[in-house]
From TrEMBL:
InterPro entries: F420-G6PD/mer (IPR050564), Lucif-like_OxRdtase_MSMEG_4879 (IPR019910), Luciferase-like_dom (IPR011251), Luciferase-like_sf (IPR036661). GO terms for molecular function: oxidoreductase activity, acting on paired donors, with incorporation or reduction of molecular oxygen. This is F420-dependent oxidoreductase-like protein. CDD domains: Tetrahydromethanopterin_reductase (cd01097). PANTHER family: 5,10-METHYLENETETRAHYDROMETHANOPTERIN REDUCTASE, PTHR43244. Residues 4-275 form the Luciferase-like domain. Keywords: Oxidoreductase. The keyword Oxidoreductase applies. The lineage of its organism: Bacteria, Bacillati, Actinomycetota, Actinomycetes, Propionibacteriales. It holds the Pfam family Bac_luciferase. The keyword Cell membrane does not apply. It comes from the Bacteria.
Amino acid sequence: MRIGLWIDEEGRSVAEIGAVAKAAEDAGIDRIWFSQRLGWDALTLIAGVAPYTKTIGYAVGVVPVYPRHPIALASQALSVQALTGNRLTLGVGSSHPYLIEGMFGLAMDRPAAYVREYVEALGPLLTGEPTNYEGERVIARGQVQIAGAEAPELILAALGPRMLKIAGELTAGTTTSWAGPEVIEGFIRPTIDRAATAAGRPEPQVIAGVCVAITDDPDATRAWIRSRFGAAGDMPAYRAVLDRGGKAGPEDTAILGDEETVAKELQRYADAGTTEFLFCPVGTGAELERTTRFALDYA
């Protein structure tokens, strides 16, 4: 099982993030992950941080597909590939109604059908091939070519059966949120594997993003997670995966405790078929430092 590290970019400069990325590379972390939120543009941030490192991979988890046309996203992703020496993993996803409809004012009906068309259009564009794609809602005609840029690895955020089917059939795998090892082993892994096998594709990646804190006060950290991320439990896609795992909220999927406790939980994820464990350090300043140090040592 590979080890990834999510870096919280909020309130940080490129130099500060670059220092963390360099430490992660020196420790043997496989990939650095950034979220696409309402501050830094994640792909632009990767292009800015990459010069602080030499070999480590970078990933965005994930770019919402509705606000960006496939041609525009292909152009940006291939630009990042050229600037980073082809170290990008491009994660895409549907996002959630509160963001797409509430903030962008875009209709989000039948998201799985839209995502399928989007990924079908995006795939050839990422390889530099000319595209003449016309779906029910996605039209993409054109070609994106950037010298030195190779097609980035493409993954799809998927938690439900239809999205997992798309991920298995059309991409290199999926990245998950709020999914414990029991959900990965019993639902996500077999669902995406069946789709990939039927499509004649290799075994997909399953990247598990998990909040982790090396802490002497798990209850306090759990309460902090509830206050920060509790609203995710009301989003339909996240609510469904939490229910599959019998969890009341995102805070119940976190790994909290001492180093031995965290190591045991990591093994559970590995045994469940997780291909990459994505550390998302949380908690107080001291807990963040302790957790990040553990992740670097574990790698």
